[in-house]
Amino acid sequence: MRVLVVEDERVLADAIATGLRREAMAVDVAYDGAAALEKTGYIDYDVIVLDRDLPKVHGDQVARELVTQRSGSRIIMLTAAGDVDDKVEGLELGADDYLAKPFAFMELVARVRALGRRSAPPLPPVLERAGIRLDPGKRLVAREGKEIALTKKEFAVLEELMRAEGAVVSQEDLLDKAWDEHIDPFTNVVRVTMMTLRKKLGEPQAIETVPGVGYRL
Q1: Distances in whole angstroms, Cα of residue 66 to Cα of each of 25, 70, 178
Q2: 19, 101, 137, 142: which has the fewest C-beta neighbours closer than 10 Å?
Q3: Stated pTM of the model
């Protein structure tokens, strides 16, 4: 899941981002509304955690812009005001959910996950291809009935390959889905992750390298 955290309190923004990354999400951060609109102009986020009271461009205007652009991103609005009128106003601006500060972090995680499921196209509960069975809900992978332990990044890469249903997935797409904007586009992290993933999946090799294009399962 790709998430954008928009919060002008830098300590809080960075803490939220760190926590969501520990939940296996790819997270970017913007500290004001203008930076948020810039990022959403070229990155498709599944969920945007949007503080309402932002400098440069107010959070309300950010929400309006995203609705005008018909963005597919789901918005959870954060605010220090938690009365009913504020919640109604936020939802009418285009937010999908509303959370008043202070909040329990695990509640935020649950809400982000719920919105992420709504933003994603319907998928079968279990993905199967080439003798590999991947359960996104339980985060389990097995090949020919034998369970395989994968890291979060290996799981994310394999899930993207299986969702492609035999189509080639580029390194750029894998970086976009499984990592975040701070990753060096010239890094070899995809190649290294692919190497360890192939080793864990075993023989016969299920992942094919398409030179100059990407990878296919």
Answers
A1: 21, 6, 24
A2: 137
A3: 0.59
CB-based burial, 2-37: b 16+ in 10 Å, e otherwise: bbbbbbbeeeebeebbebbeebebbbbbbbbbebbb
DSSP string of 63-121, one letter each residue: HHHHHHTT---EEEEEES--SHHHHHHHHHTT-SEEEESS--HHHHHHHHHHHHHHHSP
Q: Which residues contact 180 (CB under 8 A, 6 or more apart)?
A: 2, 21, 26, 27, 28
Instruction: Identify the structural domains of the chain with CATH numbers, from first to last.
Output: 2-119 (3.40.50.2300), 127-216 (1.10.10.10)
pLDDT by residue for the chain (217 residues), tens only, comes to 899 999 999 999 999 999 999 988 999 999 999 999 999 988 889 999 999 889 999 999 999 888 887 778 899 999 876 566 666 776 777 788 988 888 999 999 999 999 887 765 555 578 999 899 999 878 899 998 899 999 888 998 999 999 888 899 998 888 887 776 666 666 788 889 999 999 999 999 999 999 989 999 9
**Contact predicate 3/28, CB 8 Å:** yes
